[in-house]
Amino acid sequence: MKFIFGLIIFLLNAFVLKAQRFCATVEQGTVALQNNNRIFNPTENTLRDTVPNEIINIPVVVHVLYKTAAQNISDEQILSQIAVLNKDYRMLNIDALNIPAAFKDRAADCRINFCLAKVAPGGYSTSGIVRKYTNTAAFPANDDMKFSSKGGANAWDSRQYLNIWVCAMQSRVLGYATAPGGDALKDGVVISYTAFGTIGNLQAEFTKGRTTTHEVGHWLGLKHIWGDANCGSDDVDDTPPQYYRNFYCPSFPRVSLCSVDGNGDMFMNFMDLTDDDCMNMFTHGQKNKMRAFFAKGNLRNSILNSYVCDGSLATAGPLPADTTGPVNNAASESKFKIKILSNPVSNSIDFSTDDATNLQNKEVALYTVQGKLLHKDVLKKSTHHSITVSHLPAGLYILQIGSGKETVVFKVVKL
Fold it and tell me: Which residues are part of the catalytic machinery?
């Protein structure tokens, strides 16, 4: 009977053209268990335990990887997603009113808050949003987007930040996440740019930011509500067993083969795979499971010791932005038509402009990546300028031209 039921579901899904939510966390988690290169010990950061009923603050860095203008999503779209997380994890979402009466007493305020980081590694001030051009048209769910060497962006210290990579994804994948305890260099959440936030170029069924709510749930240790097996267990007592995942927007009640009563599946739970319009709750059991990972000695405890959402703790200037487009030996050009003529460099940093007035009276400064000032000058009216760097050791340096809203920043590699 179970085989026949499963076959019917498969056939129905095969012939329905409407988009389904596809979460690759299970597949990715299996690979992670086989290739676990964990580099930090959860007992290294046990300065304090959770305080009963405290609001846990999670600093977030969003790595936007783009090849096209559409993929380079706006700050407003990113902020809309952070707002969704803060509503969903505090049960402040308006659609919580739609929770069926049978499940209302199980719905929980998880008392978890999310904030864009204000301090980057190295002490730089930041908006918590990092943008990077990539030559990769769409990433597979194999973690390539988490490494600069593979066209992505390296993770920030996962003991202090929740890393979220937003990019174009191959196939039907909307997102996936790492569970607590995985490789620190890959730790975080990956979301398709077409399912991130509530504004922008989004897929019709995924316009309320619930893909990220779902995947962050995995990052906080939750399983899919059906336990990733027919009538499986998600290790949470107050989520009812269900036969399989649910797509689209079922009608309540939806009774499956292993339902314990007439209330059936909790398909409106954030850890099922229904459309954004139908997701609206976590349970108390899920809340307790997620919060337990922040307890002393557990796998997310180090986040309690992270204060990178406090911008007053920044010790260096703004985090340099990546130049628009690929960085190579060809000339790179800023929005003010200032060109770095060669990058990497050996003896000097040469930059120019077609109009000499673009650089006239502008301040130029060269910094180490730690923010130490190496050179400072005021430019004269000229189309070409040069800074000698032959005396500097090989490495990465930051060139800043101008000030205020007319600031241009380049990353320069010294050979």
Answer: 215
